[in-house]
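DM from R.C. (forwarded with permission)

"hey, sorry to bug you on a friday — could you get me a structure for this? deadline for the figure draft is monday and I only need the backbone to look sensible"
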Amino acid sequence: MEKKPGASRKRYDRLVRAAQQLPPVTTAVAHPCDRISIEGVVEAAQLGLIAPILVGPAARIHEAAQHSEADIAGFPLEESAHSHDSAAKAVELVRQGKAEALMKGSLHTDELLGAVVARDTGLRMGRRISHVFLMDVPTYHKVLVVTDAAINIAPTLEDKADICQNAIDLVISLGLEKPKVAILAAVETVNSKMSATLDAAALCKMAERGQIIGGVLDGPLAFDNAIDPEAAKIKGIKSEVAGRAQILVVPDLEAGNMLAKNLTFLTKADAAGIVLGARVPIVLTSRADSVRTRMASCAVAALYADARRRIAALPAV
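My reply, with the result:
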């Protein structure tokens, strides 16, 4: 399917414009030692989305910048010995209050997240860390949030509650009140032989009892009746969420990964990625990401960091 020129481009553009109205978020960039990662940093800084602190071996960072003809002269640089050290030192910058976001450079995702979840030196906040894709799908009328398709392999019910809350908090930080959350399964009825349907029903009850706040949940919902009003109507499903979902919570990582990749390759969707649940947002970029997708990821991190900053500034009740 060919993506119509400009069909959904404006959605990511709006995110970037909104983030540009804010001061750049100070971002510790872990190990930007190749051309793609250093270019992403420079592009985001030029747009006013981030104020980067580069963390890595200085010689390798300068070599990458030279190859990409990128000017990094104005960026602070924290020397590290290797990629694991880069991750640890980037996390420490956050712990010291010197950075409000993390960004993955050319190291492995596991290396960065390992430093984030370290028991004594990490950034855990008592909530499960999870990943979200903000997907710009040409055939859908709004940005779709898909979670979790990258971190939690087989989440428990309690994990899914945190995954839901992380996604809801993110969407609210982007300016949307009461986001509609569809808990996906293969069917839209509760079946004791299908654990995903039981989890979905339990999550909805948890939301009713205030254990998940800020969103409107419904499930189990099959993918078609979560996003298509006609499919929901045919099935006789009456809810605020069915056919109007903004957040799709998948049963497990395999389902989420396949869903995200189907949307990416069959509908030519873009997928901006960010990790939530830690002390600060974490930008995860892929070598295959377009410039627009990388900038959208940085914009989302900036908007989320600003929302957290404003909440922290509120007087204690």
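R.C.: lifesaver. The longest strand covers residues 50-56.
me: no worries. The chain has eleven helices and eleven strands.
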